[in-house]
Backbone:
């Protein structure tokens, strides 16, 4: 790609970075001129780093609005920081644009990032912009901070701890099906709600910053509730009892899922909610509820952790039921 | 992609990460189980972060051996850290594998990373593994540290400073042409040398750690010598006089480039050498030479910086010559 050229042509790499990304850069990014960021960590804090990639046609649909793609990319990483108890500070971004990506799509993508930077109080530190002959692939590295030694991992849960989840479960998985043309009879406002839950995750970032005050273990619900619960149990070497009736479902989700099988399939195995699944000692219940209320986040106690190293799901009558764990594979 | 299956089948995402990448993980990576890394920065140090992506068919050839692709990916980022005066500590990696990538290619790629981790003394902290329907795209974020306030930027050079470069220039650009089938008459050992220079950059990482002791500005030669010199001059608001005869060329490069035009075209505009172009005050000459000798790195003084804000190239007779700056665009 040559330099200069007429105004309507795609700008070269440097002009594109100047136009799209320099307005997003924080001081750590050195004006995006230096191929690297320089950041002075605060004494007394650990850094938490998360790096997730999303690809066109796999993690988002080509028809998704570009600002929502940008927000999803950022938020799937902010969700990982939140589950560690970290406060976001900055991010680096790689864009591998497909040859078909028009400039206005790129601009709308950058605008989406700008909105979320402001919402979540972080800035762009650097990255890279390339062209590829296949579908667009983005990769983002988010950096957050947590008081030293206070990062919440997956491995600290103990038998007897309560099992909690933020927000509602299943909306994103159902939203994907709706976006793909299923559930044709769904009412417009319900469609909008569900699709937006798929496109724009709502990770509880402000609540996540408090996690190290009460959580013994945490992770985000990205692979599906049962698969992620498996990850937590395996890392903490515990089992779990999950009370199905306590799993938080949105009114729209309940209204739009008609069969029991379909509903629980989406709840157990659907991914992409990017809520936080966490364990906390029983005596912290009141604290959890108070902090969630202060952060304006819904929390639900959905079971407890056990000595036995397996996951038991109880139905509405308290009877153990067989479920085939089948998480959504992003791979 | 399903779970389990027969031994010859491609493993699922989690098994693949366990097999390929867990052996590479440092303690900051939390066993690659937590979707995030936790790192305690050393007091008194700034962090330098670099993120570069490479795509199959654009930054490396499908026929390149996978271990060299891994090394190139890591080294283009280590080169950015070196040019800031930083010491590498860790990295995060996103792999977006094309559907055609076989497991043994992935394994050889991981083996290449392992060799370079050992050579450059850093470890894997985390990342992400996905599949894409187009060509493979990798993105890597490298994290290094530099004593607080001592990072070398592009913007600190002053008129009168010497202009230096490490290693030799042009080999990588010629190596790419050879790898693409040009220069058919080249002798085998010369071919091997040039192709290896294209495939496996040799950034002067140990020398880079010393940069803040003498360099007023620095960057890596990735876009082409003249384009990168332009970047340095623009950031430092200076001009430059470049003595063409002082530019370091390898014996093989000199032997294989027959026409003057071809030779200087590759030197001025060829990218991918990943050497360091730096400015240093005249009184630091001896120090630069001593430190380079200690680090076993070739350094050449190729000109100086000037008040006039343009770049003048002098030929072997000291005459100013016209050159059309045309950097290699990675975009």
Residues:
């Amino acid at each position: 790609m040559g330099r200069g050229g007429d105004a309507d042509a795609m700008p070269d790499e440097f002009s594109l970075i100047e136009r799209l990304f320099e307005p997003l850069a924080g001081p750590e990014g050195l004006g995006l001129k230096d191929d690297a960021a320089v950041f002075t960590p605060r004494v007394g804090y650990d850094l938490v780093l998360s790096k997730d990639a999303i690809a066109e046609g796999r993690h988002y649909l080509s028809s998704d609005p570009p600002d929502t793609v940008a927000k999803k990319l950022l938020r799937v990483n902010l969700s990982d920081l939140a589950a560690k108890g970290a406060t976001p500070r900055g991010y680096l971004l790689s864009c591998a644009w497909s040859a078909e990506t028009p400039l206005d799509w790129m601009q709308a993508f950058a605008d989406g990032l700008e909105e979320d930077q402001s919402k979540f109080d972080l800035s762009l530190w650097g990255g890279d912009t390339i062209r590829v002959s296949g579908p667009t692939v983005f990769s983002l590295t988010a950096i957050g901070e947590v008081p030293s030694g206070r990062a919440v991992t997956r491995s600290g849960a103990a038998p007897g701890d309560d099992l909690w989840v933020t927000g509602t479960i299943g909306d994103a998985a159902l939203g994907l099906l709706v976006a793909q043309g299923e559930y044709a009879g769904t009412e417009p406002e319900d469609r909008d709600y569900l699709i937006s839950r798929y496109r724009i995750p709502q990770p509880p970032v402000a609540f996540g910053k408090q996690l190290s005050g009460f959580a013994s273990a945490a992770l985000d619900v990205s692979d599906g509730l049962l698969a992620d619960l498996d990850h937590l149990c395996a890392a903490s070497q515990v089992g779990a009892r999950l009370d199905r009736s306590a799993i938080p479902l949105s009114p729209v989700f309940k209204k739009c899922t008609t069969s029991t099988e379909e509903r629980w399939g989406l709840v157990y195995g659907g991914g992409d909610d990017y809520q936080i699944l966490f364990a906390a000692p029983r005596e912290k219940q009141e604290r959890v509820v108070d902090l969630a209320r202060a952060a304006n986040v819904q929390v639900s106690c959905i079971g407890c952790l056990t000595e036995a190293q397996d996951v038991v799901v109880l139905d509405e009558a308290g009877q153990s039921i067989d479920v085939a764990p089948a998480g959504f594979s992003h791979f």
Remarks:
- Chain B touches chain A through 68 residues (CB under 8 Å).
